[in-house]
Specification:
heterodimer, A: 111 residues, mainly beta, 6-stranded mixed beta sheet, 5-stranded antiparallel beta sheet, 0% helix, B: 116 residues, 7-stranded mixed beta sheet, globular
């Protein structure tokens, strides 16, 4: 199965709070899991990515947690800021090197 | 700025018409991907080209076609347009087909197509 299931569809977090977006995949052949951030009217841009042999990767306020046995990974945004308001997409890269995308999460950070 | 350019930025046309969207990848990138994003929807992969050859097809309708030229720019042709084809169309490019890199895809700003 090639699907990547992403939740929640939308998320509202207070400024300074922690935003958590979850993804689950089925294809154990996926070898790369990126998160993309998309602002309104713009194309998606790579935010952070992880390989399945690593359980966690942190870049600034953004952390990916990866659970290989559960086939789940999540994006944590610490100290969420209004500028983080965007749509976030997770993806998995399959054996044919294509990215299989989640449906996206619209994140709103309330000041 | 990702380095990927797309033209036009906006396109308004009527049902039954045909349009061409253009994409110039980042300098040196050999792979071009086309995606469709309907309002508040996720990214639907349409098709990928690598160095002029089609490499992968996604949910691309038969009314749609694409090609990548020797200078590596790509065009997406949409014909017999329907109201439901109204969407944002993104082009992305990456350096390699696969290889040892993570094959990051860099997205252009998109073309917003409105079919009336």
């Amino acid at each position: 199965q090639q699907q990547v299931k992403q939740s929640p569809q939308s998320l509202i977090v207070q400024k300074g709070g922690i935003s958590i977006i979850n993804c689950a995949y089925e294809n154990t052949a996926f070898d790369y899991f990126p998160w993309y951030q998309q602002f309104p009217g713009k194309g998606p841009a790579l935010l952070i990515a992880i390989r399945p042999d690593v359980s966690e990767k942190k870049e600034g306020r953004f952390t990916i947690s990866f659970n290989k046995s559960a086939k789940q990974f999540s994006l944590h945004i610490m100290d969420s800021q209004p500028g983080d308001s965007a749509t976030y997409f997770c993806a998995g890269r399959g054996s044919n090197y294509q990215l299989i995308w989640g449906a996206g999460t619209k994140l709103i950070i309330k000041p | 700025d990702s380095g990927v350019t797309q033209t036009p930025k906006h396109l308004i046309t009527a049902t039954g018409q045909r349009v061409t969207l253009r994409c110039s990848p980042r300098s040196g990138d050999l792979s071009v991907y086309w995606y469709q994003q309907s309002l508040d929807q996720g990214l639907q992969f349409l098709i990928q080209y690598y160095n002029g050859e089609e490499r992968a097809k996604g949910n691309i309708l038969e009314r749609f076609s694409a090609q990548q030229f020797p200078d590596l720019h790509s065009e997406l042709n949409l014909s017999s347009l329907e109201l439901g084809d109204s969407a944002l169309y993104f082009c992305a490019s990456s350096a390699t087909l696969a290889g040892s890199s993570y094959n990051e895809q860099f997205f252009g700003p998109g073309t917003r197509l409105t079919v009336l």
